[in-house]
Protein 1
Amino acid sequence: DAKTTQPNSMESNEEEPVHLPCNHSTISGTDYIHWYRQLPSQGPEYVIHGLTSNVNNRMASLAIAEDRKSSTLILHRATLRDAAVYYCILRDVFRRTGANNLFFGTGTRLTVIP
Amino acid sequence: DAGVTQSPTHLIKTRGQQVTLRCSPKSGHDTVSWYQQALGQGPQFIFQYYEEEERQRGNFPDRFSGHQFPNYSSELNVNALLLGDSALYLCASMRTGSTQYFGPGTRLTVL
């Protein structure tokens, strides 16, 4: 599975935007870019995913580089509830039918400062 | 609509014992995956069940086994527990091809 690289930790002030980077230089043409986050004492939570175009949902935005070798998760206004570990994961949509599991790295620990 | 539920929340066992963890998937989901998360690490894929069969398996020994029932719920069994099996065990469910949704996990401590 293609590998992703993320910073170990980042800090942000409350109510400011946060840009969480992810490098995936070995991404293949059929890999979707997924982001999950894990709040303390909880299971991972789906945030957003995309293939080539930038994506927006109620939680965040995903900006994907034109060459797809990197992406950025954007939280438009960080709140204290956004403090979590954020995982960037590649998932091959054409891997053996249905067997599309997630391979997590160590993620980025986001600290939000009041 | 209840999400993915897991039981028990916490469990303490001693080395050599056996343990069974349970998972009920989100309504409408037919596929269940299990993950192990050691302290400070990301979740590691154990195996996935679909139509009551193991469809894919990660790099875990045969001491780890599972089962899926006709109602799509699932069990994870671990035999001959080792200290290194202490971890958070996560269950995730999905409809085939869709996004995975995770439960809150079962914290297993092996003494």
Note: Chain A touches chain B through 21 residues (CB under 8 Å).
Protein 2
Amino acid sequence: DAMVIQNPRYQVTQFGKPVTLSCSQTLNHNVMYWYQQKSSQAPKLLFHYYDKDFNNEADTPDNFQSRRPNTSFCFLDIRSPGLGDAAMYLCATRMGVSRDRETQYFGPGTRLLVL
Amino acid sequence: KQEVTQIPAALSVPEGENLVLNCSFTDSAIYNLQWFRQDPGKGLTSLLLIQSSQREQTSGRLNASLDKSSGRSTLYIAASQPGDSATYLCAPLEDSSYKLIFGSGTRLLVRP
């Protein structure tokens, strides 16, 4: 059973056209993360939520925004996608209670193509 | 700043071989370390989590060790199979930031 769900799996957008990627979880976890992963590179953390508290990485471009309307859902908004934003976007969750023993779970990812 | 290095970057072995993937990290202040598997174009699947107080964890043919003081972890795969072909990533969880810091991975090919 899917625990971290990402929609759509593939997204094609035009240069400069806003796009929203969706993530939902059935785990009732407190923490949700968004990562960007480019080909053959390590996943790069963009931001995360601990419950409703938003934590942005210092080097995340302003072009990237996020919303978490409730525990289950988290969205990644790219306001004006550029060609360099084409990547796999990964959502992940963690319970956020017992730091040393918690597994972080990832969704299947959304591959974004910018034309 | 935590930096994670994985060696080798790529590895090709014949089916049945035992193999070791290496991970090193620069800051030993971690809560745990996770090993993940990533198939091409897919998300990450957690394989093993080792708490900072543990030395190793086992799951089936996989065994992961952790030497926190020296900043090293290894993933041992016994009797490799073609289905093990994937990229393997290690990620320590920083205790200062509560973030996973990823290495670039080892791309494994197991030849039939």
Note: Chain A has a mean pLDDT of 93.
